[in-house]
Amino acid sequence: MKLKILVTAGDGIGPEVTNEAVAILKDIASQGGHDFVFTEKRIGGVAIVQDGTPLPKDTLDAALAADAVLLGAVGGNEFNSLPPDKRPEAGLLAIRAALGGFANLRPAFAFKVLAVNSPLRPEIVDGADVLFVRELLGGLYFGKPREWNKAKGEAWNTMRYTREEVARVARIAFGLAAKRRKRLTSVDKANVLEVSQLWRATVDEVAKEFPGVMVEHQYVDAMAMHLMNRPCDFDVVLTENLFGDILSDESAVITGSLGMLPSATIGGKVNLYEPVHGSAPDIAGKGLANPLGAILTGALVLRHSGGLEAEATAIESSVRKVLEQGFRTPDLARGNTQGITVLSTKEMGAKVRETVKQHLVNA
Ligand code: IPM
Ligand code: MG
Predict the structure, then answer these.
(1) Residue 41 annotated among the catalytic residues of the structure
(2) Which fold has domain 110-253?
(3) Burial code of 276-292, b = ≥16 C-beta within 10 A, e = fewer?
(4) Where do you find CATH 3.40.718.10 in the chain?
(5) Which pLDDT score is estimated for 87?
(6) Which CATH superfamily is domain 1-100+268-362 in?
(7) Any idea where this protein resides (predicted)?
(8) Which of 13, 204, 235, 318 has its CA 20 to 30 A from that of 183?
(9) Which of 48, 138, 140, 58 is nearest to 87 (CA)?
(10) pLDDT tens, residue by residue, 190-206
């Protein structure tokens, strides 16, 4: 299997966590005789500083020529006073738009041994396995008009969707639900917003193509509560861009840490892979970052761009095994610390790497 992977590690903890993911992918390539070619380019704050723009042309060209883009994180406090279109985040939004992936898959899975890390009771989180499908190219993030009119003291953004934009992401979500527990929850605010009414009507249309999948609709405010009260009731959760951004961070409560969540964006020219967490500038460069979200993102690269299901599963089972052996990064070491060994970013990466190697030898 040949795979050209562009690595855009970005800012803050991005480079540290991405390094660990890449090391594992390299091992898997050499062990399985795969030809993975890695290229590195700048994005985000580091690109603003060195190239004067958060998404240099060189990075964009390389991304469009790749089979998969693996991104670390973007953002930093030094850019906080810049307007949205000049910030590191603008580079991320621009690469998302250019690659064209509109379905952002964010699996949130409760590892039994991490239940102690969740503020929710173990019996509530145990067994939770939710797949968020977040629409990534529409809604308030990209809708026009948008402006902060300082003279008027007024600012506006636009939540806009077309029927086609909703239908295409809904089809992906239903398709995934059909292969899972066959339940789809669509999240909107149809009691207030026209755009949500279009969303709901379109989801119901698409639902007819998937008679085997049970569909329900939830308002986003109620959903925020249900997710915490009864996370195990949800299978695939389909949402628009901003609601998905908010609910996927909320789902970190289920897994115990935002550092555990991976994501894959599919449906466009080139798939984009990024952990859900941000650049965490406060802990950057200290070896404190949790690389598991990035490592699990690596598994999604293998699954969705490489078709290497066994290898993707090997990474996921290895992460589970390492956690079961009591190894933790500091974000996961709260609560009961008995039988727990706290590791640095690199040490955690090395543990998973070792475990994946053994797993593939034994397979
Ligand atoms: C995410 C992040 C991004 C988003 C930011 C960094 C632009 O929060 O991927 O969830 O809002 O999409
Ligand atoms: Mg977010």
Answers:
(1) no
(2) Isopropylmalate Dehydrogenase (3.40.718)
(3) bbbbbbebbeebbbbbb
(4) 1-100+268-362, 110-253
(5) 97
(6) Isopropylmalate Dehydrogenase (3.40.718.10)
(7) Cytoplasm
(8) 318
(9) 48
(10) 999 999 999 999 999 99
Residues 6+ apart with CB under 8 A from 184: 173, 174, 177, 207, 213, 214, 215, 216, 235, 236, 237, 238
Q: Residues 141, 235, 331, 351: which is the catalytic one?
A: 141
Q: Is 85 exposed, middle or buried (0-12, 13-18, 19+ CB in 10 A)?
A: exposed
The position carrying tokens 């636009």 is 158
Tell me, yes or no, if the pTM score tops 0.90. yes
Closest approach atom of ligand 1 to CA 73: 6
